[in-house]
Amino acid sequence: MTVTDDRTRLTGAYTLDPAHTRIGFVARHAMVTKVRGAFNDFTGTARIDGAHPEKSSVELTIKAESIDTRNADRDGHLRSNDFLDMAQYPEIAFRSTGVQATGDDTFDVTGDLTIKGVTRQVTVPFTYEGNATDPFGNSRIGLEGSTTINRQDFGITWNAALETGGFLVSDKITLEFEVSAVRQG
């Protein structure tokens, strides 16, 4: 079987499985360590055209209030106007504008990412991790990807200077996607 044949078998509509999908992020803290977090409440769909990946599409909506860094005080600050301002901007959204195959099992998904009311185009390189039928008869696919954004591009500018130089929170934020999607129908 060729790669194209394998991709063609994947054609269909998919829904992200929130119990087996992680939408996370990594930021530098105090210039010496990394803080990892995730968003726990989201919905997402994908329409995959295996024979013609450029016809595929993705939509993702994240509830900003679901941010979780395992620290209640930090999470509260991240939900505030200093960062996500979830009272005014309760959702983070991504809508693809293009998909391009870059290898046998790699794809660039380009789209509009909206955070705090600001929309910027980003590209997320993804790797297709495989497909399987789970014990409940669901056809699943796995994808992993990550990209780095500058939070200031989205109007998230709060920071605190450190006595030793530098800042408390990095401008560069790595977004991480570990996706399990279930075929619909």
UniProtKB/TrEMBL annotation:
Residues 13-182 form the Lipid/polyisoprenoid-binding YceI-like domain. It holds the Pfam family YceI. InterPro entries: Lipid/polyisoprenoid-bd_YceI (IPR007372), TTHA0802/YceI-like_sf (IPR036761). SMART domains: YceI. Belongs to the UPF0312 family. This is YceI family protein.
